[in-house]
Amino acid sequence: MAASAGARPMICTLDTTEVASATAMDQFDAGCVALMDRWQPMAEWYEQRLKQGLDASCKANACRIGPRVVARDRAGRGLSGINMASQDFLSLASHPKILAAASAAARRYGVHSAGTAMQMGLTTLTTMLEDRIARFVGMGQATVFPSGWTAGFGAIRALVRPGDHVLVDAHARECLQDGAAASGARVHQLPHGSYEAIARRLERLRDEDPQAGILVVTEALFAMEQGAPDLHALQSLCRRYAATLLVDVANDLGALGPTGRGVCEMQDIHGGIDILTGSFSKTFAANGGFVASNHPALRLALRVGSSVQGCSNAMSPLQAAVVLAALEIVDSEEGAERRTRLMQNIERLREGLQDAGFEVTGAPGAVVTVRLGRLECARRLTADMLAHGALLNLTEPLTPGSAHALWRLKLLADHGADEVDGFVAIAREAKARLDDVNARTAALQYAVA
């Protein structure tokens, strides 16, 4: 999707240094035969960044998640301020009903599943959750996983085999990409959001390999650019070529749509996708994920065919209880009211940052993506924000030229106008300071030349 109209990309003229401008994989010593020693230059580089105040990674929260938090950086130094770094879209993590559900589950079941889903790690709460999430997404059945990552990875790993084909959007979540790579199937990474590329590849594959299984993998709402594909068109295309469509709904389910059913509801295809995968961590206040479908064999196929279900402990009873309680809130008038407040915050933040000269990309969603440009400028700007009371994350490219540095700002329903406007004010001032340093550096360089 095109960038915001009128946005002024920052132009950085600072002298770059290895610490400020290099990428992580620049430091990786691939020629070293000692596997752990390969990472030593990167570790030293990260320590230098930390000393210079240019490392925003691995922050540790020191309180309940909320609009304002207290935290520590990787060196243990204190941070506090407006929180745009935590994913709790409807602000349910400390909701009284959520805390009560977790407490009741701990008293009845204890805190540990104590087994795999394929053996005896399920609880009656887990099976209730599988039925409840299936109804919520309009599917015949669902299978829960201990995390959203394992749900996406496990679904693809179980579904396809060597000789099959996986067509995956280039911007799809890493768990989907990794699941495809681990499956042994032939992986076709296609240009982001290109219906035409998928159609051409499906037509070619069906001509060349008519008996192969084909899985098409995309997201309902992409995390980086917050764009949504036409799900009706993709599902019709897959049926035309006897392919299976898998759509990940981690970024939209619960947070978007009139009743919280996300992009599928907004595009009027609720219950009409072959397979959905999703995560509970962004809106439903717990680790965990799910795979849902109308096919009667998929749940058992995942139990038998996914190593996550057979070799890793199942979701804990506390996780299941929390998600069940969150679903009741999401699917209620209170949930609708929380989504309304969330969308108001999304629109307010996007408008404020655009007015401040930032490049806001994608469609409105609970994560507001801001493209920052060069790494050195992005790191210095982020450090200034953290120092002045704005907690946020910096998404950095791992390799040179691989992507833009981004802010992925995470809104909460409980953010108030004061927090949103305060964050914008801090960002505006930080950008002005950086622009001033850039201008003075450019003038000095011109004078010397």
Q: How do the strands and helices of this protein lay out in sequence?
A:
Blueprint lengths: L17 H4 L18 H12 L8 E2 L6 E5 L5 E6 L12 H14 L14 H13 L4 E5 L2 H12 L5 E5 L4 H10 L2 E5 L4 H14 L5 E6 L11 H10 L3 E5 L13 H5 L8 E5 L9 E5 L4 H8 L1 H5 L5 H14 L2 H23 L3 E3 L5 E7 L1 H13 L2 E2 L2 E2 L9 E6 L6 H32 L1
Parallel strand pairs: 3-13, 5-6, 5-7, 7-8, 8-9
Antiparallel strand pairs: 1-2, 2-3, 4-10, 9-10, 11-12, 12-15, 14-15
Helix pairs in contact: 3-12, 4-12, 5-6, 5-10, 13-15, 14-15
Q: Mind explaining what this structure looks like?
A:
It is a single chain. The chain is an alpha/beta fold. It has two domains: 18-29 and 36-83 and 333-448, Aspartate Aminotransferase, domain 1 (Alpha-Beta Complex); 96-330, Type I PLP-dependent aspartate aminotransferase-like (Major domain) (Aspartate Aminotransferase, domain 2, 3-Layer(aba) Sandwich). The protein has 15 helices and 15 strands. Helix 14 crosses helix 15.
